[in-house]
Amino acid sequence: MFYGEGEERRLRAAFGDGPVRLWKWWWDRRHRIADWIVAVCAFPWTALFNLAPGWGLLSAGVVPFQAGGAPALLQVAVLGFLTLALPAAVSLALLVRRSRPNWLMGLALVLLLFLGNPVPGMLGLYSYASWFTDRRRLALWSALVVTAGAGASLVTDSRILVTFFFLMWGIALPLTLGLWVGTRRQLIGNLRERAERLEREQYLMADRAINAERTRIAREMHDVVAHRVSMMVLQAGGLEVNAPDDRTAEVAGLIRTTGREALGELREILGVLRDSADGSGGGAAPTAPQPVLSDLSRLVGEWRTAGMDVVWSSGGRPRPLPAQAERTAYRVVQEALTNAGRHAPGARVQVRVDYGEGDLEVAVANEPPPPRTGGAPEPPMGGGYGLAGLHERVVLAEGVLTAGPFPDGGWQVRAVLPLPHGDVPPGGEEPGQGPPDQGVGPSGGPPPGPAR
After folding, report:
1. Which of 71-85, 198-212, 381-395, 396-410 comes out lowest in average pLDDT?
2. Where is the composition biased (Pro residues) (predicted)?
């Protein structure tokens, strides 16, 4: 039986707080209570065996002494020493037998050799065998007890019979019982430690799953909601600048302001979700259908409708790819276009998808943004987690992501995703292929730069 945190919670739920508190008080002090019980019960038995005649090196002198061969005052002093002082010393040694076992064993050897008292030796051997794992020292103490018992039996008439019973009941029995109890205690302790470790691991796994789900929710919110709101803000800003009348410009400005406030609140929510997660990004895939490369034409069309000059091209042999690679490539293009629309409005953006034999390369590069005019709207507020989330996605796909500026002020995001050799079953729809626009984005990636 053991007492752990899980058992404590179950007991509190079943019996309430009062009985559990009393049980815990007793469980924490059970060994000390047992020591006092053993010390009190051993006192009369020690005194009785100290006065037992016929065994021990001093038994030949104690019997005539007790029969009246000495003054009465001396007899009272000796009897008090044998029946009070020595039993009290044995009881005190029993109270500290788990911290000072040598005191009890030394006192047991003296009483066994000179008075033939086996009680302290039996208790000492049992205590040492059940509480300590030093088997060499246990064997040494056992040999000393056997030697002391053999010396005490020299003065008896029936040495063989007394020695046999002493070896059986005074040595073998307490040793066997003590070793069994000690082994059982170690086994229970190991099981208790294992149960507590498994319980802690279970809580850690649950907490890790919660954190991974929070990270996944934050990533999906950024990829989907922030992308849509950013596009809405950009379209409203363009409408505000080119509005044919004041009423339309006022409404467009209100939409743009509301969208910026929504992006700010979304950034706070994403910060709370990511701060409470461990950033592992190992959550399960969402159950809703996720966009793949076949959806790139729709994504590029939306940004062109919003006024962005997007040039899309592809190379290599388009073919079905693993679902994870297609989803990751789509998110890379989506996040790069969102960043280009936010930080470089009006700049030309080139999207390049290369289907290699062993990898899939996605590169999105924008030219330097044109100078802003006085009436141009400010770029919408970003969440600050876009490239960090992309890096998590690409790492999960065992790919490499680089992002950084060009010397002329442009910016490029480039991801290389490894692909399995040979044809693979399609992970979704057939990957789409962009329209044959002229112009190809840079094939080489810039040196890694700060995330934006």
Report:
1. 381-395
2. 367-380
Higher pLDDT, 35 or 161: 35
Answer yes or no: is pLDDT of 14 > 50: yes
> In a 10 Å sphere around its CB, with 0-12 CB exposed, 13-18 middle and 19+ buried, how is residue 452 labelled?
middle
Largest Cα–Cα separation, the chain: 134
Task: Give the whole-angstrom CA distance, residue 236 versus residue 369.
Answer: 19
Instruction: Give the alpha-carbon dihedral of 41, 46, 51, 56, to 10 degrees.
Output: 150
Q: Which of 1-10, 86-95, 355-364, 384-393 has the lowest mean pLDDT?
A: 1-10
**Does 66 have pLDDT greater than 60?**
no
The token pair at 87 is 């039993």
Instruction: Please say whether the beta carbons of 407 and 301 come within 8 A.
Output: no
* pTM score, whole prediction: 0.45
How far is 226 from 382, CA to CA, in rounded Å? 8
3-state helix, strand, coil in the chain (%, to 5): 65, 10, 30
Can you give the length of the chain in residues? 452
Nearest to 225 by CA among 259, 248, 195, 198: 259
Average pLDDT in the chain: 77
Residues 6 or more apart in contact with residue 56 via CB below 8 angstroms? 62, 112, 113, 114, 115, 116, 117, 152, 155
User: 259-297 burial, b if ≥16 CB within 10 A, otherwise e?
Assistant: bbebbeebbeebeebbeebeeebebeeeeeebbbbebbe
Asked if 121 contacts 148 with a C-beta cutoff of 8 angstroms, the reply is yes
User: Could you state, in order of their start, the residue ranges of all structural domains in the chain?
Assistant: 5-157
d(CA 413, CA 332): 8
At 335-367, the pLDDT tens digits run: 888 888 888 888 899 999 999 988 999 999 999
Average pLDDT over residues 132-157: 84
Q: Backbone phi, then psi, for 38, in 5-degree steps? A: -65, -40
Segment 160-183 mean pLDDT: 82
Q: Are 270 and 217 in contact, with CB atoms under 8 Å apart? A: no
